[in-house]
Amino acid sequence: MQQDMIVILDLGSTENTVLARAVRDLGVYSEIYPHDITPDELRALPNVRGILLNGGPNRVVDGAPVDVDPAVYSLGIPTLSADHPTARGEALPHWPEDPAALTELLRGFVFDTCKAQANWNMENFIADQIELVRKQVGSRKVLLALSGGVDSSVVAALLLRAIGDQLTCVHVNHGLLRKGEPEQVVRVFRDELGANLVYVDASERFLGKLAGVADPEQKRKIIGAEFIRVFEEEARKLEGIDFLAQGTIYPDIVESGTKTAKMVKSHHNVGGLPDDLAFELVEPLRQLFKDEVRACGTALGLPDAMVYRQPFPGPGLGVRCLGAITRERLEAVRESDAILREEFHAAGLDKTVWQYFTVVPDFKSVGVKNNARCFEYPVILRAINTIDAMTADVEQVPWPVLMKITNRILKEVPGVNRVCYDLSPKPPATIEWE
Ligand SMILES: Nc1ncnc2c1ncn2[C@@H]1O[C@H](COP(=O)(O)OP(=O)(O)OP(=O)(O)O)[C@@H](O)[C@H]1O
Q1: Going by CA atoms, what residue is nearest to atom 6 of ligand 1?
Q2: Parallel, antiparallel or unpaired: strands 196-201 and 167-173
Q3: What integer pLDDT is reported at residue 274 of this predicted model?
Q4: Whole-number mean pLDDT of the chain?
Q5: Where residue 388 falls among pLDDT bands split at 50, 70, 90?
Q6: What is the number of other CB atoms lying within 10 angstroms of the CB of residue 430?
Q7: pLDDT digits over 353-364, tens only?
Q8: Which of 56, 58, 103, 283 stands 20 to 30 A from 18 (CA)?
Q9: Complex ipTM, two decimals?
Q10: Do 247 and 340 sit in the same domain of this protein?
Q11: Cα angle at 183 between 209 and 125, to 5 degrees?
């Protein structure tokens, strides 16, 4: 391993990741561990230069006070505590609230007290992971479900560097992807990076299963279950695969429940594969925050369009084609979404707006085209900004941009005679319509 590490012990704080980020922003690697890690376990971690004991509001779990084994203080590793009443050694009542003051404080501890090296960077990370993956996998084979999203794409690029053609990627086109996406996956991974890529066009199969299904939950379930089935069929056709690679990232792990915050969120994975397809997991991004995953993708040479892709729901355009999906409306969603993305890119909004997309509802309205009455679908535009996806504000898109998008959709997308802009914040609306 190349990099020095600062360990953050979670003593009931809700802000462990803030601290981890602040340390990493100084160029020093950091990881969060539970309060009851043993001194031996701590000693076994590579290159630990300092320990931050991060207290907070969750001081009692299941009736027992949250504390560390006092032997932690005598490991010969510098410690700094905050908001932890029984702390020994250097202790603060709380971390500074001002980010600049927090950075200064951590800088002093990390570099002056701990003498850590600022050697956390993407080159070292990639070199370390290549070495670790090679050690884990040996000469065996790895399978990856490649969605074309940021996480699985960066995993693919990293594994290609590490193990080349021992990796097989499977990309499933469920017919609900955005315009040009399956083509981009094939171009980047098969043509440019030379990956073993199995491309499965399962659109007909998905659309068949979804025919007439209007309930959003039911739609999501069908898409999820069908995806597992398609992936399973492809996995069974391949011989001698021992590993499944996943784009698990650090927030997936931290958010799936620390010992003091019992918050359980389902993991980022291809869950639901049958037991006889039990693979060992390869998760090379499990230590990275999202922006670090992007930096890693860029360092590996992936195109910006892939690395900075906006969030996209798992069930894809299926939840933006409201009610029972029809081919006509699905095409209207796909084409109008492509126009919106093109125009946001032209106006530079793709770099500032968090998420933007179009929705086509399952009702029509009256209009006039070519001097005749028509009865066609509306397209709803949505563009929002958010920090944590818990709340969201509507982007105040400049009027001329909205007019240009509207005119193009009305002219270029068949079956559409009206364009609306969704002005609702979250709450009370959600980001997606279904
Ligand atoms: N169409 C697809 N083809 C192949 N694999 C897929 C597809 N959709 C999803 N997956 C797999 O399932 C995982 C979780 O999917 P989800 O839609 O939750 O993605 P995500 O969290 O945005 O991650 P990513 O950035 O990799 O898309 C993906 O990382 C990928 O491994």
Answers
A1: 147
A2: parallel
A3: 83
A4: 93
A5: confident
A6: 11
A7: 999 999 999 999
A8: 283
A9: 0.96
A10: no
A11: 105
